[in-house]
Design brief:
Structural class: mainly beta
Helix content: under 10%
Number of strands: 11
Strand content: over 45%
Number of helices: 0
Shape: elongated
Radius of gyration: 14 Å
Amino acid sequence: QVEVAESGGGSVQAGESLRLSCLVSGKTWTVGGMAWYRRESGKERELVARITRGGVPREYADSVKGRFKISRDNAKNTVYLQMTGLKSADSGVYYCYAGDYPGPGSKDYWGQGTQVTVSS
């Protein structure tokens, strides 16, 4: 089993920065790609950024390109989301996703989410 836990959310003013962390524990050797998603109030959860097992960023949402950076430290079993130039539209609950390597019995894992509130 794999457990995923986010931290680092909070309330900030527009233009400020936050760094989210996602710690993976348990059978971490089964985990391949990871990602950050967010859900704004009343909207569907959307992909923010994703990263490979090897630490290569693969995709960013258009709305965060140039402002957010995803990174990964496998020695610490942690993925980060560095958010700069925050806007009110970035407010929402941010979820960390971890996926097993594809294969029989592979699973998806989600954290409980961390709230980010940006005030203009």
